[in-house]
């Protein structure tokens, strides 16, 4: 998806939700890319972790998905809110 296509999608999304996009600017940042159809949750969690840690570098080693999945599991088990 090229930059023009991303802009079109963004504009259509804003129009659909009646959202004023003027104060917002979109940009494409370098990021790791999911190459399969099963690890979307791992990517979302990892991107969120990176953002919450204050980094803007969304690149991570995708060969470590099994280890990242284990870290996510450990975090969930360790921080159980029961």
Describe the structure.
With 82 residues, this protein is mainly α. It is built from three helices and no strands. The mean pLDDT is 86. It has helices spanning 3-16, 40-52, 65-78. It has two domains: 1-30; 32-82.
Task: Describe the SSE topology.
Elements: H1 3-16, H2 40-52, H3 65-78
List keywords for this structure.
single chain, 82 residues, 3 helices, 50% helix, extended
Q: What are the secondary-structure elements, in order, as H or E?
A: HHH
User: Tell me about the biggest sheet?
Assistant: none
The radius of gyration computed from the alpha-carbon positions, rounded to a whole number of angstroms, is: 16 Å
Oligomeric organization of the protein chains? single chain
- Give the low-confidence spans: none
The tally of domains stands at 2
Percent range for β-strand residues: under 5%
Approximately how much helix is present in the residues?
A: 40-55%
């Amino acid at each position: 998806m090229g930059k023009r296509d991303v802009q079109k999608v963004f504009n259509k999304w804003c129009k659909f939700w009646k959202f004023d996009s003027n104060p917002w600017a979109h940009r494409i940042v370098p990021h790791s890319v999911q190459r399969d159809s099963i690890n979307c949750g791992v990517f979302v969690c990892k991107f969120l972790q990176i953002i919450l840690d204050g980094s803007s570098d969304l690149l991570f080693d995708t060969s470590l998905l099994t280890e990242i999945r284990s870290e996510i599991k450990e975090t969930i088990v360790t921080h159980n809110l029961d």
